[in-house]
Amino acid sequence: MIIVDCLQNSPQWDEARLGVPSASQFNRIVTTTGARSKQREAYLYELAGERITGEKKAGYKNADMDRGHERQQESLEMYEFINSVKVQTVGFCFLDDKKEVGCSPDGLVGEMGGFETKDTLPHIQIERLEKGWSTADHFQQVQGCLYVTGREWWDLVSYSRGIPPIITRFNRDEKFIHELSIELILFVNDLNAIVKKYT
Q1: Residue 11's closest CA among 104, 91, 98, 99?
Q2: Domain around 48
Q3: Is residue 74 a contact partner of residue 62, using CB atoms and an 8 Å limit?
Q4: Exposed e or buried b per residue across 144-175, where buried means at least 16 C-beta atoms within 10 angstroms of its C-beta
Q5: What CATH number should be reported for the domain holding residue 47?
Q6: Helix/strand/coil (H/E/C) assignment for every residue in the chain
Q7: In whole angstroms, how far apart are CA 153 and each of 79, 127, 130?
Q8: Angle at Cα 93 formed by Cα 91 and Cα 97, nearest 5°?
Q9: pLDDT at 69
Q10: How many alpha carbons fall within 13 Å on the CB side of residue 23?
């Protein structure tokens, strides 16, 4: 793993991620079963466009997402307090020195763990506390982070200010990670071929 030491959402962070398949988007490459996602082709062309032009695709943002960025530090400090740990914040992590695949963890924990937080609206957090939290929507991202960083476990946090947090620990799913690694190799090969064709 190679760590780019920068602030997330900074120009350096944008530059590191440009045209690189990242764990937060791995659901666009594979499904939770390891099958190819229907969004794969669109994501492939999107990253090819970034690499060819050197310009990042404009992303969608809303007030909820902005609030999530603002409260990420709150969630991190709460997590550190509850678990008596220190979270190492990082910018972007590459799988290896090829720098073809990566992830943007919210934090690394010790030598074996990781941390990811999702800011949640109060009514949703209460419903999750009452009925349980389905974390399937984040499966590919978390397993992708485990693959890229080589870590053993990852804590996914549902956070809403003033309401008890929910912390779900993921361990490595080696079968899925194996399938993901193969699909990422094929995806990167296709990406490189498209970029080469038009540059």
Answers
A1: 91
A2: 2-197
A3: no
A4: bbbbbbebeebbbbbbbeebebbbeebebbee
A5: 3.90.320.10
A6: CEEECCCCCCHHHHHHHCCCCEHHHHHHCECCCCCECCCHHHHHHHHHHHHHHCCCCCCCCCHHHHHHHHHHHHHHHHHHHHHCCCEECCCEEECCCCCCCEECCCEEECCCEEEEEEECCHHHHHHHHHHCCCCHHHHHHHHHHHHHHCCCEEEEEEEECCEEEEEEEEECCHHHHHHHHHHHHHHHHHHHHHHHHCC
A7: 15, 26, 25
A8: 135
A9: 67
A10: 23
Q: Which residues of the chain have pLDDT under 70?
A: 59-69
- In this prediction, residue 71 carries a pLDDT of 83
**The two structure tokens encoding residue 192:** 């490189």
Q: Using an 8 Å Cβ cutoff, are 67 and 175 in contact? A: no
Q: Can you give the pTM of this predicted structure?
A: 0.93
Which pLDDT score, from 0 to 100, does residue 180 have?
98
Alpha-carbon gap, residue 154 to 149, rounded angstroms: 10
Total domains in the chain come to 1
